[in-house]
Amino acid sequence: QLQLVESGGGLVQPGGSLRLSCAASGFTLDYYSIGWFRQAPGKEREGVSCIDSRGGSTNYADSVKGRFTISRDNAKNTVYLQMNSLKPEDAAVYYCAAEGPLLLHKLCVVIGGKYDYWGQGTQVNVSS
């Protein structure tokens, strides 16, 4: 059974950092682009970042550029989202998603409809 499990969420003060993890089970991430999305109460789901299957190309939403970094460790079958300089408006449930398997390499896009498998989410709260 293909499964994505997010972890690393929690409560952090403004300006603080968190690292989210997205671990895959039941399949290898080598042939999948991975995206991170978030949804705050009363708001639409927002694309945050994505990384292509090779890990050589990334994309970020303008709201997180320079503060968030996505990376992947295919040996650990895990993708990470390092979040620094967190702001109250970053508070949301964060989801990771996988697009694939990709028979041909392509650049990733942070569009939810492109992704085939989704995790259950991890809550991030930013408050003093």
Give me the secondary-structure topology.
Layout: E1 3-7, E2 10-12, E3 18-25, E4 33-39, E5 46-51, E6 58-60, E7 68-73, E8 78-83, E9 92-99, E10 117-118, E11 122-126
Quick synopsis:
Helices cover 0% and strands 46% of the residues.
DSSP summary, beta strand count: 11
Structural class: mainly beta
Kindly, what is the distance between the CA atoms of the first and last residues, rounded to a whole number of angstroms?
40 Å
The string of secondary-structure elements, in order, is EEEEEEEEEEE
Classify the beta-strand content into a percent band.
over 45%
Structural description of this entry:
- Strands 2, 4, 5, 6, 9, 10 and 11 form a seven-stranded mixed sheet that branches. This protein has a four-stranded antiparallel sheet with strand order 1-3-8-7, with no helix packed on it.
- Strand 7 and strand 8 form a beta hairpin.
- It has 128 residues and is mainly β.
- It is globular and about 45 Å long.
- The mean pLDDT is 95.
- It starts with a strand and ends with a strand.
- Helices cover 0% and strands 46% of the residues.
Main features:
four-stranded antiparallel β-sheet; seven-stranded mixed β-sheet; 128 residues
